[in-house]
Amino acid sequence: MHPIFKLVVQRVALSLFLLLAASVMIFIGTQILPGDVAQSVLGQSATPETLANLRKELGLYDPPVTRYFNWLFAALQGDLGTALTNGRDIGESLGKRLNNTLFLAFWAAIVAVPLAIFLGLVAVRYQNRWPDKLISGVTLTSISIPEFLIGYVVMYFVAVRLGWFSSVAMINDSMTFGMKLNAIALPVFVLTLVVLAHMMRMTRAAILNVMQSAYIETAELKGLSMFTIIRKHAFPNAIAPIVNVVMINLAYLVVGVVVVEVVFVYPGMGQYLVDHVAKRDVPVVQAGGLIFAAVYIGRNLVADLVSILSNPRLRHPK
Amino acid sequence: MKVPLSAIVGLFFTGIYFFIAIFAPWIAPYGLTESVGDVWEPMSREHWLGTDNIGRDLLSRMIYGGRTTIWIATAATVLSFTLGSILGFFAAVIGGWADQTISRFVDLIMSMPSLIFALVVLSVMPVTMFVLILLMGLLDSTRVFRLSRAVALDVNVMDYVEAAKLRGEGRAWIIFREILPNALSPLVAEMGLRFIFMVLFVSTLSFLGLGVQPPVADWGGIARENGQGIVYAVPAALMPAIAIATLAISVNLVADWVLNRTTSLKGGRG
Fold this sequence. Notes:
Strand content of chain B: under 5%
Structural class of chain A: mainly alpha
Largest sheet of chain A: none
Distance between the termini of chain B: 19 Å
Order of helices and strands of chain B: HHHHHHHHHH
Number of domains of chain B: 1
Largest interface: A-B, 52 and 42 residues
Helix content of chain A: over 70%
CATH class of chain B: Mainly Alpha
CATH superfamily of chain B: MetI-like
Oligomer: heterodimer
Radius of gyration of chain B: 22 Å
Number of helices of chain A: 14
CATH topology of chain B: MetI-like fold
Structural class of chain B: mainly alpha
Shape of chain A: globular
CATH architecture of chain B: Orthogonal Bundle
Number of helices of chain B: 10
Largest sheet of chain B: none
Number of strands of chain A: 0
Radius of gyration of chain A: 24 Å
Strand content of chain A: under 5%
């Protein structure tokens, strides 16, 4: 068997295990409270009868291990349960919102990834001169402000002062594709800023790392121009680390999207999750947390697979 | 020793923020919950930053808010550093199954975004300052653990550690008298970055309504309360942005300086 195949299988198996472990942690995380879910849903004023009913409905009288496996198997079959607060099916509500969130994250990635790589290259080309310093300064500032505040700053100046876009990003099915894009322009812009900063800094570091190798010095001594060196010698060798950086940074989108959705009142997963955390709707939080964890772990898996497959030393072992 | 200008600026502003945080009640012109004017009054001589969504003095809210935010962030950083570095050193020195167990557990926790994990836990825990500090400190100690373990592994193979082991010193001595002093500088630089991360984390949680609860003020909460004002062109919600950004950049400048100083001491690698 080809050794790379073995590596890939190992990595996939590890991800599945991590996902399983994450589901255990999410489950335990919602069980460690003093008191129980029924009490915190109904509040202090609940009568003993309603408490007992809710506990029975939630299966709180079963031992925790049984409850965990019931929940897990149901989730595997696509049944995420019903929300405590409005009694609606969680899978149905989540599905639509997950679509909206992926739509938002997809466009943010489309804008941010090429831009980050381009800016990273520019920063390396003009290293320690003003374009590099300007880019570093701007990215340092945008890393230092939380996503929601970048959201407010952008909303204040672009939507309110300039009046260019709407300050809330409501989308629904009756809107055309163009209208949807127009509605999500500001959240995409904010997400791009957030991801761009991290991604660009890491791209710059990855290319600089390659630039310090011996073959680059040789190319320099041959008298090649700086841009030819970057294009023909540095970039092909930097692809694997850059792809890795890109994939890792898309993980910032997972967290960024939660906050940005709340800022712009966008009907996505993140807002749904946050709303139900505040309402202490445990089944929804478990389902939402599980999906976010799955997306995050899946993305890490893809990053690792790409770096395994793009490494010639692993593809052609001696 | 020559201290670069950027580090002096960083130290100066970091110092001011901590000074304001400590002496907030004496500095703030008005009380924390005192209603002193109309809703969202513009900046004036009585109210330097104007008033907030229910007519409280925004400057006073910002000063008290900074106190809460900085206090929580500091406490969580101290917790994450104490726990993370002791476990990291412990894992590096003992090695074997202890190292494996702790490291795999840390991998597991880091396989989920910390915000999502925090949301899951906060959906059932009562949201108090104590729970927030504990949760943030524990989640972040995983990152400190990785760094201190890596640094300690490097130090652990040095001759002087070897000598101490041959002398028959106990593990506590090795960890606290041999490794800790030599691993301190990269950890101190990292502490700055973790502190900023904590400030951002607690602000984000408060903004989502799951952090510091009103009427106590904190920077994330102030942004949340005044978020509606943005639509009416009231910039009150932008004040926390300025405060957080200047604090974060100042701490970053200091951390950069500490890191550069230690790398030049060791001749290259930190």
